[in-house]
Amino acid sequence: MKKINVLSQNIYNRIAAGEVVDRPYSAVKELIENSIDAGATEIEIYIEDGGKQLIKVVDNGSGIEKDDLYDAFMPHATSKISSADDLDYIKTLGFRGEALASISVISRVEIISVTAGNQAWKITCDGGKIGDIVPAALEKGTVITVHNLFYNTPVRAKFLKPDNKEEADITNFVTRYILGNPYVSIKYYVDGKLTLQSYGGGLEEAVAQVYGAKVLSECFKINAEKDGFLLSGFIGNQNFFKPNKTYQSIFLNGRYIVNNTVATAVNNAYASYMMKRQFPFYVLNLDVPYDFVDVNVHPNKADVRFLDNRRVFGMVYSVISPILDGTTKAAEFVINEKRIPEIKSTSDNNQNKMYTEQIRENIGVILRNSSTKNVPTTAEKQVNTDNLRIDRQENSNKSAEFDPYRDLSMREYMPKQEITSMKVTDDTAIPAIEDLKLYEKKKTEQQKVEVKSCKYKGDLFNTYLIFELGDTVFFIDQHAAHERLIFEELNKKLKDRAIIKQPMLVPFIFNTNAVETRFMEKNIKLLRSMGFGISPFGMGSFRVDEVPVDLQEIDIKGFIDEILSQVDSLKNINLEDILKEKLAMAACKHAIKGGMKLTSQEIDALFGMLEGNMGLKCPHGRPVCVALTKRDVEKMFKRIV
Residue 424: helix, strand or coil by DSSP? Predict the structure, then answer.
């Protein structure tokens, strides 16, 4: 009996679609790539319901000929390549010929397009069934509309994220296209609202539109040619870091990529300047010979392979490191010494000021004394070789690509590791992690003593209070004990939402990118309920004008950075856990300190507040009390064995 089936075109197209178009963001990506490859200088993107119900891309590109409209829906139909040899020199963003065919199989697609001097035509495709080509009205370019994505693949539709999360992925992806195509005007609408816009005025303007104009004053603008490669763009200064990786973009020959070799080289250059949980800011364009890189690794084309990773690593590191270190070599890579940012730091202002002046002087002297070696601007430089495309004139078209599974940590549906059992000192097994708090509570209660029966015997080093009860002596850390009591009081206010707000003399205003904006909007109500007066302050900005009175000395910038660092987290943010850390710090700051001599009244009050709970720990995990029995002491003196 025959067991091998030759699948029909409809079936294998749906199988292929699952790899090429797995989420709404990938459909948007493919359509924008087609617009860029068609020479568009103006692109408009519309999405509704996270791209599930509507994706529409309008461009002013070269258009599609009437005779090609039907073939546009065919699998492996492309105008980008014509032979196998072309795969070794891929110069366009798209080339596989799978995208439109894949999208049309799992949605309802309409294309209206016109070429110069001709009539506009329209064609539709519903779930892979192609309709007739009919006349339409359109002045220039192409309009592609996608309705009801995954409507006929319910299994795939079940695995889509909520609308706001799908929208966030698309938004982050569109920002990459704005940065990767600085001479293309891009408008992006979400549910009818203009969310992002660039004007095609160059990379500097694109960075300002995406991240805010203030970012530019914190960056070096670079343009370096070395070892046959070109590296250009913006890198943050030695003190300019972000709380997550959403401020990092690498474009290879105009294509947005996620590459460990380049990222590691950049991070190593910043290593001596970065603190823990900080990430450098950069928007970098790397141009290499086309035959030096393989982009045909995966359908998403974000993963690439270099012929020699060490060569790429060395080039990137050797350009960025001298700039950060302030050596004279930096003059070869920084475009204009006037753009060198002023380094600001509260810890060492004078040293940083001298550093800035030194690097500016080093670069300035070399630029002034070597007119033949002036570093050209990006728009002026062109390298004419067969294998290396370096053309950054204002009509150049570039593109970016986004893969949220690799760029952003959006894998909320990954199974979480669970603790199924746990051993403790008395060898009692705790069957599940949810029982841990109950167990700790019971353990603390078991170590509770009668306060009135304890006798105060003095203190050690003005730090450890000594109490005696029967055959047991208790050494209480006065700082840890007071810290725990303050923390419990603050935590109770947090749980009861009985928080008093303290107005700030000067409101704190911070900027966010598209992903962070959506993240803050999602959590703003929770922050307000915790005592923070926070509200939107224009597009891509938020204002904090109130803080909890118990945290009025909080480092608000550090607190916001810590919240935004959760953007990259594999699990949903727990703001209460973050706030508890701040409460613990506040408790530590206001608690009595070790070495502080207490009066007898203060000792009695502190011990009474403990209510005999000798098993408590401070918020940082240190024990409040250590107990020694008479037997323990006698063993120390070898009275007993």
Answer: coil
